[in-house]
Amino acid sequence: MKRKSGLLFLLMIVMLLVTPMVFAGGEGETQSGPIKMKLSHPSAETHRYHRAALMFKEEVEKRTEGRVEIQIFPLNQLGSQEEVTEAAQMGTIDLVITSDDKLMTLVPEFEALGLPFIFRDHDHVYDALNGEVGNLLSTKLEKKNLMVISWLENGFRQVTNNKRPINSAADLANLKIRVSSSKPNMLFFNSCGAASTNISFSELYTALQLNTVDSQENPLANIRDKKFFEVQDYLTITSHVHTSEPLIMSKSAYNKLSEPDRKVFIEVGKSVSKFAFDDAKKGFDDDLEYLKEQGMQVNYAERDAFAEAIEVVYNQYGTQYKDFINIIEQY
């Protein structure tokens, strides 16, 4: 009997030595070695998305002491924003930097972020998204197996075209313009007399080059990053709509983390959000100067020049998102 007990004890020791396991947390799973995650974003390594992604990766890996490793895939290497967002929802990609308008089919309130002139400036956006507004959106998103880990900054959208300077809504008349997939934003431009359409961001340069569209609207960093100045002559500073770029995480990937590591992800996400917004504010003047140096003719258009179009949009969407708009305006 003693001999059998001794053999059993020896067998248990051998099993422990041969198959060491590291506890991964959340769902009571085990994980051999570090948890490896993929992070997808749509831009070049010179873009602020990549700088934010690198900061997130480095801080998470440092603070988890090697328990988590993150590999970054820039330039839509893993698929378009729509494709990788769906993959994150399914749990096949862990982390995705995507535009807020790509999430409105999952959570309708994201649509309200695309209302014209709803945000005053970068600080207003930052306070709202890192406060009650962002918490509400992320909570609703969790029901779709996604969550916002960090609110990154895309920026206020500006208009470029190859026809003329835009000083008022009348100057947009009959322009074929590529806009974000936000319905309020599309209605805004249609109400100005333009013909709005949504073309994949990855195909936009070619569409401008071939005159499939005359115009587009994007934050300055994107105009610079994608070299739209090569196929567009005029840049109008309108700041008509803001687009944030949330870093979303698959809820199933989040659940694999231990409680301490989940806390690390949330805390690092907050610090990276602050970095991203500060970086965008500092980068605006530099991007603008660079685009001028590339030969773009720059002018400024005021909100009042689009008053009638703004009214049309809020007449249609203002009641639908009244409570959500009120929360945004409180900041």
Major β-sheet strand ordering: 9-8-10-7-11-13
Average pLDDT taken over every residue: 91
Q: Helical percent range?
A: 40-55%
Radius of gyration: 23 Å
Strand content: 15-25%
Between the first and last Cα atoms, what is the distance in angstroms? Answer: 75 Å
Largest sheet: 6 strands, mixed
Question: What is the 3D form?
Answer: globular
Element order, helices and strands? Answer: HEEEHEHEHHEEEHEHEHEEHHEHH
User: Low-confidence spans: pLDDT under 50, at least 5 residues?
Assistant: 9-29
Q: Compute the number of strand runs.
A: 13
Category by helix and strand content: alpha/beta
Explain this structure.
The protein is built from 12 helices and 13 strands. It is of the alpha/beta class and 331 residues long. The strands form 3 sheets. A 6-stranded mixed sheet has the order 9-8-10-7-11-13. Strand 8 (176-178), helix 6 (183-191) and strand 9 form a beta-alpha-beta unit. Helix 6 packs antiparallel against helix 11. The longest helix is centred in the C-terminal third of the chain and has 35 residues, at 259-293. The N and C termini lie far apart (75 Å).
